[in-house]
Design brief:
Blueprint lengths: L3 H56 L15 E7 L9 H18 L3 E7 L1 H9 L10 H4 L3 H16 L5 E9 L5 E9 L22 H71 L2
Parallel strand pairs: 1-2, 1-3
Antiparallel strand pairs: 3-4
Helix pairs in contact: 1-6, 5-6
């Protein structure tokens, strides 16, 4: 049985850790609240913009754009979103594991892969496995901004338009609730321009100036850039939610451990007192 001093030291250590996890939970909760507000304000705009695009294409079905033309896949660009720091449960591990499976799948199909890690954790994992990464976008996770998302989207669109890659995929966590962050694969390019739901807008009411082709060439890149920004915000929000949950679990575990250690300390103390009394009574 551990000595009273050892148990007291361990109780103090667990208490100290509990204070850290509780503080991290409070900080992440505040960040989660802010991120939720930002993405909830963005999503209606993105959905409305997509609705305009879909209705516009419904009225001009013969229009074509290079960003929506599928072709045989010889090279794929994968953009994987993770966090820059840990202590968020399995958030980063799930991304790394799923990405490794997809890379292996493409390797077996003899398809080349360009890797764009967005976040320090996935970038470190890829480097550790010997993969070559294209660029470092860690700053987008720490301070997500629209300009950075636009730069990334523009580079990816240029690769696709020049046929340096034939497909662009996104791997990220979608924030469904504070308790659920869903890991998703999304085909970003070629763009899926099919109507994904009914819209209140009437396609026949659009008056196009100066021409449908010009409108499509302006509207589709805007939708694509905005979708990258939305995915970035989705990832950051999911990270904060995962960290809140992880720190809550850690704090709960610390409370349980403290109860066990306190009980063990009291039993050890009682046993020590009993032994001293027996020594005195026995005249030793």
């Amino acid at each position: 049985m551990s000595s009273l001093k050892e148990i007291k030291i361990r109780i103090a250590s667990v208490n100290s850790t509990k204070k850290i996890t509780s503080a991290m939970k409070m900080v992440s909760s505040a960040k989660l609240h802010h991120s939720q507000g930002v993405i909830e304000n963005l999503l209606p705009y993105e959905q409305q913009l997509r609705g305009i695009l879909h209705n516009f294409l419904a009225a001009n079905a013969d229009l074509e754009t290079p960003f929506a033309q599928p072709r045989p896949v010889r090279k794929v660009a994968i953009v994987a979103f993770s966090s820059n720091s840990g202590l968020c449960g399995t958030f980063n591990a799930n991304v790394i594991k799923e990405l490794a499976v997809r890379i292996q799948k493409y390797k077996e199909e003899q398809i080349d892969v360009l890797l764009y890690p967005i976040g320090k954790k996935v970038a470190e994992a890829l480097k550790k496995e010997g993969y070559i990464i294209e660029k470092d976008f860690q700053q987008l996770i720490d301070k997500p901004d629209y300009k950075g998302a636009v730069n990334l989207a523009t580079e990816l669109m240029a690769l696709f338009e020049s046929e340096e890659v034939d497909k662009v995929e996104l791997l990220y966590h979608h924030f469904k609730s504070s308790a659920i962050q869903q890991l998703l694969w999304r085909d970003w390019l070629p763009a899926n321009l099919s109507q994904d739901g009914e819209s209140e807008a009437d396609a026949d009411n659009y008056i196009i100036e100066p021409s449908p082709e010009t409108m499509l060439n302006e509207l589709l890149p805007k939708v694509l850039r905005l979708s990258i920004y939305a995915v970035l915000l989705d990832t950051v929000t999911s990270e904060h939610a995962a960290r809140v949950l992880a720190m809550q679990t850690a704090s709960d575990n610390a409370n349980e451990l403290l109860q066990e250690l306190t009980l063990q300390y009291n039993k050890s103390r009682q046993q020590a007192i009993t032994n001293e009394l027996l020594d005195i009574i026995g005249g030793r």
